[in-house]
Design goal:
This protein is of the alpha/beta class. It is built from 6 helices and 6 strands. Strands 2-1-3-6-5-4 form a 6-stranded mixed beta sheet, sandwiched between helices. Strand 5 and strand 6 form a beta hairpin. Helix 5 packs antiparallel against helix 6. The chain is globular, with a radius of gyration of 14 Å. The protein starts with a strand and ends in an 8-residue tail after the last helix.
Length: 155
């Protein structure tokens, strides 16, 4: 898990989204290391490349997906990905809007595959992370199976 937060990386703010990711993914039965907290921008790409090189199956990022001048997570993610999975971020945005969060459409988050690593960008807010995990939960097992070459039957 990669948390893009310049303030949290500098120790000026507490990371609240990383622990949510670790707890929920662990509850899904996945082996989850502690979240890596990095500053927005290039450090996000460096953390993603390190996770891919380590052969991590799934990397979720939080933060840096908006339109502020420092939000660069999608650009850093796109540079690492081999293939995009556009339906996942579309579904994440649709879910947010359906829950009454009109600003969900401002998320520029991406999802895709780098080697055999699935990468999904989530927003940085605690609510956005929780909602994103709700969307991802029924998809992750099948998605990871597909990336490993599994058949196309729903799991």
């Amino acid at each position: 898990m990669v948390v893009a937060s310049t303030r949290a990386a500098a120790g000026a703010a507490e990371d609240r989204s990383g622990p949510i990711l670790v707890e929920r993914l662990g509850a899904w039965g996945l082996e989850v290391p502690p979240a890596v907290v990095v500053a927005d921008g290039d450090p996000v790409g460096e953390a993603l490349r390190a996770a891919v090189a380590d052969g991590v199956d799934l990397v979720l990022t939080t933060g840096g997906t908006g339109v502020s001048p420092t939000d660069r997570t999608p650009e850093q993610t796109e540079a690492v990905l081999d293939r995009l999975i556009p339906g996942i971020p579309e579904l994440l945005r649709q879910d947010g809007v359906a829950k009454g969060v009109a600003t969900a459409v401002l998320s520029r988050g991406l999802a895709g595959v780098a080697g055999t690593t699935v990468v999904v960008n989530l927003p940085g807010s605690e609510g956005g992370v929780r909602d994103g995990l709700d969307v991802l939960e029924p998809l992750v097992e099948h998605l990871l199976s597909q990336v490993r070459g599994g058949d196309h039957q729903a799991t």
